[in-house]
């Protein structure tokens, strides 16, 4: 049964955020809000969490997982970014974008694309997510909470708890955060390739 965390959207309660972070460190799989839509999240090195996300979303091994980072300095530990790409990403963060980039050795092999050795990274513009990342001290391994055969993510914490209570360990609810997933930009080939058009404006990458 998933524990329900009711978090204030503008002033997240430190004690509650600390409880969520402790559960993640203990290998919990949670659903949490972002600046685009709800996501599934777990500890960076959690093999169990990865497998559970794959099962819930029916993902194959070519799916790009995302490392949700607190800031640019943290992001830079996990992906290789040249100067041109640095400027493009810096101008778009924090925000509703996921960037696919070559992974560094800090990224567990099980998170990397099996052929490209890439991983997704993003810096969200969401008060609750940022509070959680600050408390956690490392990125959250994440994937959009979009269930198989459904076109839109769930937007309400109570609905997520009701439907996924048996497969999650926690649900963080800070109100509605929308249905549109992030815009995905692949920089792994050097040039910006728009993989998915979502909540982030794509004009600067076209």
TrEMBL record:
Superkingdom to which the source organism belongs: Bacteria
Pfam families: Sua5_yciO_yrdC
Domain YrdC-like, chain residue ranges per copy: 14-200
Stored NCBIfam families: L-threonylcarbamoyladenylate synthase
Full protein name: L-threonylcarbamoyladenylate synthase
Record organism: Streptomyces longisporus
